[in-house]
Amino acid sequence: MLAKLKHFFSQELKINDQEDTQDKIPLAAATLLIEVNRASLDKSSVEQQAIKAVLVKSFNLSEQKIDSLVEHATAQDEDVTSLYPFIKLINKHYSEEQRIELVKTLWQVALADQEISIYEEHTIRKISDLIYVSHSDFIKTKLSVLERNA
């Protein structure tokens, strides 16, 4: 286990050039989306489909690449005890607008099954704080997603 974590931190999140960054950013976003899905008491396939839809829309990747990305992010999410490496990537490479949009997508995944659990909300709030999204933007994104689904 320790060896896997050491490898993960030394190799998986190491960014050497722009191309490498472009590969790691979708992985970081997917991991955060999956973290919201993990917080749900009911692991529905609807939320998993929402994750894939959000990733397709956000990163314009093929369905095969999205499936591979989600599978890889899910495997990493089960092994990693900290979101810090993913948060660090998002904070370094996302603008404020992109971070707000990411929070909006977290809400979309949480609401995909027509219900937001307190655990999903807590997870989104935690991620939102870590990526420096203001509380007012946190609330605005939630209300925006709720209104769209009403």
TrEMBL record:
Annotated ranges, domain Co-chaperone DjlA N-terminal: 27-142
Pfam families tied to this protein: TerB
Record's protein name: Co-chaperone DjlA N-terminal domain-containing protein
Species annotation: Colwellia psychrerythraea (Vibrio psychroerythus)
